[in-house]
Structure formats: structure tokens, C-alpha cells
Design goal:
Chains: A mainly alpha (about 325), B mainly alpha (about 325), C alpha/beta (about 400)
Structural class of chain A: mainly alpha
Strand content of chain A: under 5%
Number of helices of chain C: 13
Largest sheet of chain C: 8 strands, mixed
Number of strands of chain C: 16
CATH class of the largest domain in chain A: Mainly Alpha
Number of helices of chain A: 13
CATH superfamily of the largest domain in chain A: MetI-like
Radius of gyration of chain C: 22 Å
Oligomer: heterotrimer
CATH architecture of the largest domain in chain C: 3-Layer(aba) Sandwich
Shape of chain C: globular
Structural class of chain C: alpha/beta
Distance between the termini of chain A: 18 Å
CATH class of the largest domain in chain C: Alpha Beta
Radius of gyration of chain A: 23 Å
CATH superfamily of the largest domain in chain C: P-loop containing nucleotide triphosphate hydrolases
Helix content of chain C: 25-40%
CATH topology of the largest domain in chain A: MetI-like fold
Largest interface: A-B, 64 and 74 residues
Number of domains of chain C: 2
CATH architecture of the largest domain in chain A: Orthogonal Bundle
Shape of chain A: elongated
Chain lengths: ~325, ~325, ~400
């Protein structure tokens, strides 16, 4: 439970724009990291080892990333080559994962398809974090009018259901990998802003910050040397979870036909192909492999994010 | 309390206005216009210009905006350029489907997540808890567009228990309606269960470590009483906030599900309208969905004040 | 009081014998209680062999530094500790029943009804989202056979008796609307609601202003006298128990190091640790700028406590024997005065050989002699004088 002071902080009203965001307190509570200030917790409890599952998850993510990067160097079939003599082939030595209804090698499509998910996911969140996170960091510490307006802006942006905007923009502007990444990164900026701001805010009034100020540290120094290191664990954990979310959104767009255009593979559009046109009955493998790959990737990312959060004693918040 | 509500209401109105501007700009700032769709790509530029003039689309943006807004205050959201259906009618037929999907799925989600969390939070990191945690992580990794086709394959095509398509309005035939809506609702529920379970569980675990729980024990109160009457309420804060955000995310899921199950909901209509540059439809849907979401946030905030007395009086 | 006791809910199957008077044995008897916590670094022996007893109407003070195990002791006596990774041995007898052998649902009949606890921090020990009235009535309705209206009326009376003004309105208040002192009064009201026979007050005044501290303690004393309750006062502050306890137990590193009726403890202190505790209380009479007598060093590691006397590393009179062999708890002149020291103080002077006295040992001065009054707040507390109320 956040203590009364933190609650008061988040409920502080400054006029009409004051506790502007419905559920401000709640939302901020979600991600306020509560570093234990007492010595006791270190005495009795020991930081849990990260665990076997964690390393497994990390390896899977590492593997997927690695394969995506070196895909061109691997002896993979051309993912777009339609081999009409091998339609819906079952997994075999030639086609380790089989082929789809147009004779394209599934293994190669899944590996090349991973690029879309990975790039969109990680790039969008990285950009979002750089913009939104930095703004949140500064805004949470400084407060004042800048903070009030930014917060208001973030709320309004978050209030608008992103998917509607994304669909509209993608449909009009175009759905290349680059454009989708930009759109999604803009979509996550307010989210990451809120999260980092909440975390920054929770540290802004801690004793060590006040101490730094009394010693004459400039604001910049305080923000980047005192607050940032404390905010990073929470931000990283949440960022990872957002990556998972973005990958899902891309998949959803792909399913609706709004992601990268065929024949370029992406997990979403392979799944989409595999689920429609009766393919599911005829050749469930088309859908199976990308689902499995995506499932394991999302699971791994969520696991890693969760373990990181536990490790750094961050308040368990939004998934 | 009254003052608080009034302030909230004013905020609601202001936000709604801003959203209307955003909804308007969203569609108007993007390239393309309905003329290509209505007349066909090969029609003359002159005809297109005439059409645009007829539709009032060559006026300055701010003027179009004010026209639209004033019309709304008269209850007129405009008409579809293509089939001339009133936007209000489109909304009225589509919205109930989405609302129903969300309601059913949230009822299921809460009914599953809350008891699960209450049970596992008492003994964290034991086998039952670990199973539940792994299970919910799994649910998070299966988005609706994955679950839905699989469910259709198993339950509709394979077992034949539920239909894969079709819709009957609730008012017409509740039983048939539910029969049709079960699969699509379930398809979007998994993520919610996972999110709510995790949030509630984590809050419960930290609440159970608080002093006032030990104090409650020292009064001789039973574990079950303590769980329900002491631990639960303070632990719902994250859950409430999470519900607000989650439902926003749910909207995306409903779009997928409508597409797959051939339900004539707002998502499907929206995507069509976007492709066809049917401005007023897009604006109308975007506006209504956004405002509904904002109202939901305010409702949740209000519930928050009821649950946590410190908010209005602190 | 007895009438109310008889009205207790028949749901319970336990009968509570009316023990604790002069001849029929003590109300509470703790025998060789151990409470160990299993952690990843080893087993923390927080309470390592404690025996004590309390009679009806008596006040027992348990004094010790942070880390001495006194809070764990109070929870362990009640049985409020978690089950996992906790090893508890020894017996606790209360009002004719053996608490240590009871099952949880039996213990729940004891808690709140016959044995209750006042917690240290009223800010965290009260449920922040529950009205204070409810926090009292839930206890009342659980243990007594009454309906909500009657319980609320009783709650209002309880609040009045603990000195909360306008109790009729305040029953509907939330804890955050009250000041610290008020909250502590609410805690007392809750603890006393069902007229328990024994109340454990765990640092009831830490965190409160000094003036409020005195008020709270006085209130507790008054209520205790009215209801003829036994009270165990757990604190780190000797001054708190000096005028309010009948008997004092001094704990160090999980064990009792000295135990005596209050007057005897102050007039005939044996254990150097107890002496050091007394010396560390700042005196109003001292001129400003006088250095406080802190006890050098820190409490020992409870996973691997030292071999001999546990206080040896910090004792100004330590001898080799102290470091080798643990001194047993034995009696002094009077049978109710126990202490554990090889070279106890007699009349304020250490019996340890002078040459081996530890470096920097504070010499006994008239200001620290056993008979000097110990000021507490505004009132100089003279152990030989009558108890004054401020």
C-alpha cells in the first residue's frame, strides 16, 4: 500500500487540471516502485535466484533474435518461393516445418516472419521509452505546470482507444514495417510516459533526493544520477511487458490485413492465413508453428519482465 | 463529495471535446477522400471535385468540425457516404454487440480471477499458486486472434457445440443470443483473466503482510472473514485501475473477434469505413468509442472513491 | 466484569478457569519458550529459552533493545506467528489452557476474548479503509452474543472510556482522520473490547509525542485497574515501565538476563546490562551538552550467538569466564529476583576484578548510583515514592 504521502502526491489537485486523470492514483499506484527502505527485508529474505524458467525464457528470446538476425546466412529456402509441387507438405527433412497452402517453406517463413514482430516490438518500445520515458522522468521530478499539462495530454491520448487510431492511420498512411513501427511507437509513448512518471514521482521526495538537492546538485544531475537508476528496473520491466503487448497488436493488425503486406511473412499474417480459407482443417501446421513461436516468445518476455520486477522489489503492477 | 463529482463531470466534458477534435482530425488529416471510393478511381477530377463540394468536404477544416459538432448536438451524427445509413443507426446496431461481448467476457474474467486470487494469495509460491501463475502467463501469450480460430475449430467445427457465425439480438432471443456469443466472448477473455488475477493476487499478497491483518487475527477473526472483510477491499485498487486499462485494450480484441465470427459490430464496420473513406462513420465510431471509454474511466474512478475513503476526504 | 464474561458466545467450547489469583497459580505461565525462524542464511533464534509468569491484575514489563526478541516473544506467547519456517518449542499456559497445544480454531476463541494485543504502530495496525467503529464491533460481535445495534452502543461507550471525544460521531470515522494519539486510543478500545484477562501492549507509545505517551499509559493503567486486567508492557524504554510495572523482565539477545519486581530492579540492579539501560536514559537534571551514555556495540547475530554470555562483547566489566561460559539465571537475595551474570553488580559496584575491567568502562558516579531518582518526562520517578500521575 502506498503510504499516505504518496497517495496525497498523486491526488494533489491544482485546479481544474489537477487530479486530472481518472484513476490517476490507481494508475500510478500500479507502477510506483516501492523500494524497501528498512534494513529488515535484506536480513531475513534473500533475493531469490532468477530461476530455471527465467534462463529458459531468456534463451528462447535470444534464440529467436539470433535467428532473425542471421536468417540470411542460414541455409533457408526462400520464404516467398511458391513450390506448387509441395503444397501443404508435412514436416520432412526438406521442409523441417512443412509447407503452406502455396508451397512455401514454413520454417523459413516463420524465421523471416519473426523479424517483423521483433522489430516492431522492440523498436516501437525503445522509441517510446526514449521519448515518453524521458519526458516522464523529468516530468515526475519537476512537477509544476509542465507536468500537469503533459499528464493531461497523456491522459487524453490514452483515453482515445489506440486501436481505432492505429487502424485508421495504418489504413490510410500505409502499412510498411517502418510506418507501423512509427505508429505503434507513438501509440505507446503516453503509456510509457505515465509509468515512468509515476516511478519518478515516487522517488522525487525521497530523502536521498532531498539530500542531493541540499548539497547543491543541479536538477539535471539529480534526475539522471539519482532518480534514473532507481527508475530503470521498473521501467525495464514494464517496457518488456509493453513489447509483448505491441507484438500482440501487430499480430492483430496482421490478422485484419493491416500489417506488412503479403507475401512478406509476419507471424500475424501467417496465422491469419492458417486460420482462414479452411486451412485449419487441411493443414493445421500453417497456424501451429507461428502460434507456437509467438506463444513461447510472449511467454518468455512476460516471464523475464516479471522476474526482473520481482528481483528489484518493484510493486507488482500492470502486466 | 458533490464538489468532487462536479469537478469530475467538468473534466469529462472537457475531455470529450478534445476527443471529438482528435477523432475529427484523425480522419481528415490523412490522405485520400471518399470521392475515389464512391465514383471509382477513374472518374474525372471534375466530378470528384463536384462530389466533394456536395459533401461539404472542401470547406475549411474548422468549419467542417463546427458543422459536425453542432449537428451532434441536434442528435445527428451524419450519414454514411456510401449507403446513406445514418451513423446513429449504424452505431445503434453495432454497439450492443460490442458491449455485450465486453460485458460477458468481463463477468467471466472477474468470476474466475477473483476466487483464484483469493485462494492462491494465502499460500504464495506453493504448487497451486505456481500452477496458476504459469497458467495465467500462458493465457497472456495467447491473444484473441490465436484463440478464436482454435476455438472455432474445436468447438464449432469439431464438436459442433456452438455456431461459428451468426447473431441474434438479445432482445429477440436471449438463449440463441448467448449461444452465439459464448465463443467470441471467451476468445477475448483469456487476457483479462490473466491480468486481473495477477493484479489482485499481487495486491492481496502485499496486503496480507500488513500489520492490520495481524491485528485482525489477534482479534480472533477467522481467516475467511479476514480475507473478505479486511484484505480484499484494500487490494482492489490495482484491479480497478487495471480494469480500466484492460477494457481499453479489449476493444482491439473485439475487432478481431467480430471479423472472425462475422459479427456486425463496430470494429468490423470501422475497418470497412476506413477503407472506404467514409468519414462520418469513422468519426462517429471513433468519437463514441472514445467517449464511452472515458466515461468508463470516470465510473471506475468513482468506484475508486467509494472503495477508498481517503480519496475524497483525505 | 464477570457478568460480561459469562455472556460470551456459546460457540466456543472452551471454558476459562478463573485462575491467576494468589493461590491457584498464575494467569499466564510461559515455560522455556523458544522461537526460531528458518531463513536462507540460517536459523534466527529470536527467542531462546524464556520463562515467565503473570498473575491476575499484575503488570509485567518486558524491556529490551531492538533485536532483543521482545516483540517476537509477545507474538509467540499469543501464538500469532506464521506457521511456515517457524520453530516454536516450550509451553504457554493461560487461564488453565495450554496455548501451545491448541489448534487454530481454539486459539481464535482465546484471541480477542481473553487475550488481546495492542500493536505498536496505530497507523498501520488499523485497517485504513474500514471505519473505526466497525473495527471494534466486529470483535464484539464475534465474541459476544449481541446484535449490531448493541455492539455499536458498546463501541461508543468504549470510545468514551478511552477518552475519545464525541464518540457517537467518531464511530463512523476512518483511521486517517484521527491523530496518532487518538488512533492509539482506538487500538486500546479494540483490545479491551471483550474484557480480556490479559492484554499485551507491544510498544504502545513508540512514535507518539512524549505528552501523549504519558496520557496513553495512564489511560491503560486506569483501565487496567478498573477491569482488574493483567498487562504485559513490552518496550525498549525503561522509563515507561519504571512507574507502571509491578515486575520487570529484561531481555537481551533472546534471553532473560534479569527479572525482578520493579523496586528491586532499580534499587538492587545486578546485571550490568540493566545498569547500562538505566544509564542511557537522558536526564533532565543533566546540564545540556552532557554526552549521552550509549551502550557501545550492537546486539549479537542471532543466527550464531556468542558462546558465553551474550552481552560479553559489550559489557564494560567483561572477564574471560564471561566469554567462555554462559551464566545461568539464578536468584539473588530474594527469590523473585533473577539475573544471569558471573560478576553481578552489588550496590552499584561491579564484583568483577578491577584490573580486568574493560577499557573505557564508565566509573560508577553518584549520578548513576542505584538510589538516584530516574527522571521521566516532567516527573522524577523515584522508585521508592508513590506513583504520581502527571
Amino acid at each position: 500500500m502506498p503510504d499516505d504521502r504518496e497517495l496525497a502526491e498523486t491526488h494533489a489537485s491544482t485546479g481544474l487540471l489537477g487530479d486530472w486523470v481518472p484513476g490517476t492514483a490507481a494508475m500510478d499506484e500500479l507502477v510506483v516502485s516501492r523500494q524497501s527502505e528498512s534494513l529488515d527485508s535484506d536480513d531475513i529474505l534473500v533475493k531469490k535466484p532468477l530461476g530455471f524458467l527465467f534462463w529458459f525464457a531468456l534463451s528462447w528470446v535470444g534464440l529467436v533474435v539470433l535467428l532473425a538476425v542471421i536468417a540470411d546466412l542460414l541455409p533457408l529456402a526462400n520464404p516467398n518461393f511458391q513450390n506448387y509441387s509441395a503444397i501443404n507438405a508435412r514436416p520432412s527433412f526438406h521442409h523441417l516445418l512443412g509447407t503452406d497452402d502455396l508451397g512455401r517453406d514454413l520454417l523459413s517463413r516463420v524465421i523471416y516472419g519473426s523479424r517483423v514482430s521483433l522489430i516492431v516490438g522492440f523498436a516501437a518500445v525503445t522509441i517510446g521509452m526514449l521519448v515518453g520515458g524521458t519526458l516522464g522522468l523529468i516530468s515526475g521530478y519537476k512537477g509544476g505546470r509542465m507536468d500537469t499539462w503533459l499528464n493531461a495530454g497523456a491522459f487524453v491520448l490514452l483515453a482515445f482507444p489506440a486501436i481505432v487510431a492505429v487502424i485508421a492511420i495504418v489504413a490510410f498512411w500505409g502499412h510498411s514495417l517502418y510506418k507501423i513501427t512509427i505508429i505503434l511507437s507513438v501509440a505507446v509513448i503516453p503509456l510509457l510516459y505515465r509509468v515512468v512518471r509515476a516511478s519518478s514521482l515516487s522517488f522525487a521526495n525521497r530523502d536521498f533526493v532531498i539530500a542531493a538537492r541540499t548539497m547543491g546538485a543541479t536538477s539535471t544531475r539529480i534526475v539522471f544520477r539519482e532518480i534514473l537508476p532507481n527508475v530503470i528496473p521498473a521501467a525495464a520491466a514494464f517496457g518488456l511487458i509493453t513489447v509483448a503487448g505491441v507484438i500482440v497488436v501487430e499480430g492483430t493488425l496482421a490478422f485484419l490485413g493491416l500489417s506488412v503486406a503479403l507475401p512478406t511473412p509476419s507471424w500475424g499474417n501467417i496465422i491469419s492465413e492458417g486460420a482462414t480459407n479452411g486451412n485449419l482443417q487441411v493443414n493445421p501446421f500453417i497456424m501451429l508453428w507461428p502460434v507456437l513461436a509467438m506463444f513461447l516468445l510472449l511467454l518468455s518476455i512476460n516471464l523475464i519482465g516479471d522476474r526482473l520486477r520481482q528481483r528489484f522489489d518493484v510493486r507488482e503492477g500492470l502486466l | 463529495m458533490g464538489k468532487y463529482l462536479l469537478r469530475r463531470f467538468i473534466q469529462l466534458v472537457v475531455v470529450s471535446f478534445i476527443i471529438s477534435v482528435l477523432a475529427f482530425l484523425l480522419i481528415h488529416l490523412l490522405p485520400g477522400d471518399p470521392s475515389t471510393v464512391i465514383l471509382g478511381a477513374n472518374d474525372t477530377a471534375q466530378n470528384k471535385a463536384i462530389l466533394l463540394h456536395q459533401l461539404g468536404l472542401n470547406k475549411p477544416l474548422w468549419q467542417q468540425y463546427t458543422t459536425w459538432i453542432t449537428a451532434i448536438f441536434h442528435g445527428d451524427l451524419g450519414q454514411s457516404y456510401l449507403n446513406h445509413q445514418s451513423v446513429t443507426h449504424i452505431l445503434a446496431t453495432g454497439a450492443p454487440i460490442d458491449i455485450e461481448l465486453i460485458i460477458i467476457s468481463q463477468i467471466i474474467a472477474f468470476s474466475v480471477a477473483i476466487p483464484m486470487a483469493l485462494i492462491t494469495s494465502r499460500r504464495p509460491n506453493r504448487p497451486v499458486d505456481n500452477m496458476a501463475t504459469t497458467g495465467t502467463f500462458g493465457m497472456l501469450a495467447l491473444p484473441p486472434f490465436v484463440i478464436a480460430p482454435i476455438m472455432v475449430a474445436i468447438f464449432a467445427v469439431g464438436l459442433g457445440w456452438f455456431p461459428a457465425t451468426g447473431y441474434v439480438p438479445f432482445t429477440q432471443d436471449p438463449a440463441a443470443n448467448l449461444h452465439n456469443m459464448i465463443l467470441p466472448s471467451l476468445a477475448i477473455t483469456a487476457g483479462s483473466i490473466a491480468v486481473y488475477y495477477r493484479l489482485l493476487r499481487s495486491d492481496l499478497i502485499s496486503t496480507l503482510q500488513e500489520d492490520f491483518i495481524t491485528m485482525a487475527r489477534s482479534k480472533g477473526l477467522s481467516s475467511r472473514y479476514i480475507m473478505w472483510r479486511h484484505a480484499f477491499r484494500p487490494s482492489t485498487f490495482s484491479l480497478l485501475a487495471g480494469a480500466g486499462v484492460n477494457i481499453g485494450a479489449l476493444i482491439a480484441g473485439t475487432f478481431v473477434v467480430e471479423y472472425l465470427f462475422a459479427l456486425n459490430g463496430l470494429g468490423y464496420t470501422l475497418v470497412q469505413a476506413v477503407y472506404q473513406r467514409d468519414y462520418l462513420v469513422v468519426q462517429g465510431i471513433a468519437l463514441v468509442v472514445a467517449i464511452a471509454y472515458v466515461i468508463l474511466q470516470f465510473i471506475i474512478d468513482f468506484i475508486f472513491t467509494v472503495v477508498d475513503p481517503r480519496v475524497t476526504r483525505g | 466484569m464477570t457478568a460480561r464474561r459469562q455472556a460470551k458466545r456459546g460457540r466456543g467450547t472452551l471454558e476459562f478457569a478463573d485462575v491467576g489469583h494468589a493461590d491457584d497459580g498464575p494467569l499466564l505461565k510461559v515455560e522455556d519458550l523458544h522461537t526460531w525462524f528458518r531463513t536462507s542464511r540460517g536459523t534466527v533464534k529470536a527467542v531462546d529459552g524464556v520463562s515467565l509468569s503473570v498473575d491476575q491484575g499484575q503488570t509485567l514489563g518486558i524491556v529490551g533493545e531492538s533485536g532483543s526478541g521482545k516483540t517476537v516473544l509477545s507474538r509467540s506467547i499469543m501464538g500469532l506467528l506464521p506457521v511456515r519456517d517457524v520453530v516454536r518449542s516450550g509451553t504457554v499456559h493461560f487461564a488453565g489452557h495450554e496455548l501451545t497445544a491448541m489448534k487454530p480454531d481454539q486459539l481464535r476463541q482465546v484471541w480477542g476474548a481473553e487475550l488481546s494485543m495492542i500493536f505498536q504502530d496505530p497507523m498501520t495496525a488499523l485497517n485504513p479503509v474500514k471505519r473505526i467503529g466497525r473495527q471494534v464491533t466486529e470483535s464484539l460481535r464475534l465474541h459476544l452474543d449481541i446484535d449490531r445495534a448493541e455492539a455499536t452502543a458498546m463501541a461508543i461507550e468504549l470510545f468514551r472510556s478511552v477518552g475519545i471525544p464525541s464518540p457517537e460521531q467518531r464511530v463512523r470515522w476512518y483511521p486517517f482522520q484521527l491523530s496518532g494519539g487518538m488512533r492509539q486510543r482506538v487500538m486500546i478500545a479494540i483490545a479491551l473490547a471483550c474484557a480480556p484477562r490479559l492484554v499485551m501492549a507491544d510498544e504502545p507509545t513508540t512514535g507518539l509525542d512524549v505528552t501523549v505517551q504519558a496520557q496513553i499509559l495512564d489511560l491503560l493503567g486506569e483501565l487496567q485497574r478498573e477491569r482488574h486486567m493483567a498487562v504485559i508492557l513490552v518496550t525498549h524504554d525503561l522509563g515507561v515501565v519504571a512507574s507502571r510495572a509491578d515486575e520487570i523482565v529484561v531481555m537481551y539477545a533472546g534471553r532473560i538476563v534479569e527479572q525482578a519486581p520493579t523496586r528491586t530492579l532499580f534499587s538492587d540492579t545486578r546485571m550490568p546490562y540493566t545498569r547500562a539501560l538505566m544509564d542511557s536514559i537522558p536526564r533532565l537534571a543533566d546540564p545540556s551538552g552532557v554526552r549521552l551514555h550509549a551502550i557501545a556495540g550492537r546486539p549479537p547475530d542471532m543466527i550464531h550467538p556468542p558462546r558465553g554470555c551474550r552481552f560479553a562483547p559489550r559489557c564494560p566489566y567483561v572477564q574471560d569466564k564471561c566469554r567462555e561460559i554462559e551464566p545461568p539465571l539464578r536468584t539473588a537475595g530474594s527469590p523473585d529476583h533473577l539475573f544471569a551474570c558471573w560478576f553481578p553488580l552489588v550496590n552499584g559496584v561491579s564484583t568483577a576484578p578491577m584490573e580486568s575491567a574493560g577499557a573505557g568502562a564508565p566509573p560508577t558516579t553518584p549520578a548513576t548510583s542505584a538510589r538516584a531518582p530516574i527522571p521521566f518526562g516532567d516527573t522524577a520517578i523515584n522508585p521508592d515514592a508513590e506513583v504520581q500521575s502527571p
